[in-house]
Amino acid sequence: MESRASPVGVQGAIFCFGVMNVEKENVIIELVGVTNRYNDTVAVDNFNFYVKKGEFVSFLGPSGCGKTTTLRMIAGFEHPTEGKILLNGKDIADLPPYERPVNTVFQKYALFPHLDVYDNVAFGLKLKRIPYETTDRDGNKVTKYRKLTKKEISKKVTEALKIVDLEEFEWRDITTLSGGQQQRIAIARAIVNEPQILLLDEPLGALDLKMRKEMQIELKEMHRKLGITFIYVTHDQEEALTMSDTIVVMKDGQIQQIGTPEDIYNEPKNAFVADFIGESNLYEGTYMGNRKVRFLNHIFDCVDDFPANEKVNVVVRPEDVKFAEVGKGMIDGVLTEKVFKGIHYEYTMMVGRNEVTIQSTRSMETGVPVSVNIAPDLIHIMKKTIVSNVYDDAYIDNDNRVIIAGGAFDCDVTQLVPGSSLDEEGYVIAPDGKKYDFKDADVLVDVSLSDIEIIDNEEDGVVCGKIVSMIYLGNHYQVLIRTEDDEDFVADTEYTWNEFDRVSVRIPAEKIRMTLRGEVSKYVKD
C-alpha cells in the first residue's frame, strides 16, 4: 500500500505531517486540512487522509486523541472548523447526516427495546423514500419519491439478518438477546440501508473478552461479504491489528502513522507508535555510523542508516530478544521478574538501570545472570525530533521531588490524583479521603521547551551539562544540553550561548507535568 501521510517527529514530541503527492485511485472519502476546535481545545488538527473503496480502515489511539470526533465529522454529526470532507470528490462538510450514504454503529447499540428484531432492523427502511421517474399530465418526465413496499422491506431485512447470521431471529424481543447478538442487530440495522461507508465507533467495547475476539472475526467476514468501506474507531490495538487493511494511529488530534498492520507493528515511525502498538523495549541511543547503534551500553549491528553520532530512538520487540549462553551474548543482565502468560513467559531483565522485557517459551529462574542476543534486522531505529522534553524513566523520591536525569526537581505530586492535596506528612489526600504514598513511583514527565531554564552558574541549577548544539529558528534559539549520562534537555531561549559551554538547568515546579505509570491503586496508603 502506498504511503498516505508523512509523519515526522519522535520521542517526546507532538507531531505534524504533510500530505504526500501520490496517485489516489478509487478514493471514496478524503479529509483535506480538517480541523475541529471546541473553544480553545483542538480536537482534530489539520487532518489529511483518504480511504479507498472497500477498505477496512481503523482509527487507533488513546482516549481523547480525536478519533471519534473525526468519525462524527464523516457521519455529519460534527462540523469541521476548517477543511473539506470529500465523498467521491464532492465536498459534503455542510451536508446533513441523513443525506450522506453513511451509517454508524455506536458502542451503545441504541436499539429500541419496545420493538422486536425485525422492526428494529426495518426502522430506517420504513422512513426511507426512494426516487422514481414518472410522467406528468403534460408528458414531461419528473422524479418523485415513494416508500418501500412491505415486500421490499422484508427482503432487505432478511438479507441483512442473514449477513449477521441471525436470520431466524426476526420476531425475537430485543431484551432476550445476548450482548453479541444485540451488537449484530445494530450492525444489521446499519447495513440494511446499503450505505457506501459503514462507521463503527468502538462497537465491541461493551462485550466481554471472548465475545470481542469472536466479533472481530465476524466483522472481518461481514466486511468481506458486503464489499463496502468500513471505518472503525478503537483504542484496542489487537482489534485494529486483527481486522484492518489500514491503521491510522492518532495522538492529540494528529496522525502519527498510517500503514498496514504489519507496517505499524514492525516499522513504527516514532516512539509513541512503538509504545502504543504492542509491547516494546524503547531506548534512546546513538547511531555510531557504518550501521552500528549504541544503546544499553553496547554497540549493536543494525540495518538502518542514519548520520553518524545522531541521537536516535531504538525499538526492540520483547519476542525478538533471544537468550544466549551466559557470558557469550551481546549483553548481560539479571532476570528480576517472571510472569507466565499462557503461551510464553514474560521476563524482566535488568541491564544496569535499564529494563529489558523478554518473551520466551523457555522457563528460566529469576535472580540469576543471563545473556541475550538481538539480531540486526530486529533492531528498529527511528529519527528523534524533539518538540517537548519527555522523560519516561523519572520517579518520585522520599521528599516528593521528581528525579530526572539524576537531579531532584521540586514538583506538584498532587497532579497525580486530580483534586487532591498534601497533608502535613507529605501524603497525597484524594477528594474521597484516600491517602497515597508515591515514594518510588514511576512517572512520565513532560516539560515544554520554553520551560527549561538555562543557568550559566552550575551551582544554581539542578542538573549540569554541556551545550552540544544551538540552532537559530527565526525568533529564538533551540539549545541542546547534554549531561554526562547522555540525558538531553532541549530549551527554547532568546539568549545566545556558545557550544561546549558548561551550564546547569532548572525547571519551575508548576511547569513539570507528570503522568503516573501504572495503576494509582498500587500507592494507596493503608
Main sheet specs: 6 strands, mixed
Structural class: alpha+beta
Q: For the largest sheet, list the strands in their spatial order.
A: 8-11-12-5-13-14
The top-level CATH class of the largest domain is Alpha Beta
Distinct helical segment count:
8
Arithmetic mean pLDDT: 88
Which percent range fits the helix content? 10-25%
Oligomer: single chain
Any idea what the radius of gyration is? 28 Å
Number of strands: 37
Question: How many independent structural domains?
Answer: 3
List the uncertain runs.
6-22
| Strand proportion | 35-45%
CATH topology of the largest domain: Rossmann fold
Q: From the coordinates shown, what is the CATH architecture of the largest domain?
A: 3-Layer(aba) Sandwich
The name of the CATH superfamily of the largest domain reads P-loop containing nucleotide triphosphate hydrolases
N- to C-terminal separation? 54 Å
Given the C-alpha coordinates, what overall shape results?
A: elongated
Please give a quick description of this structure.
With 526 residues, this protein is an alpha+beta fold. Helices cover 16% and strands 40% of the residues.
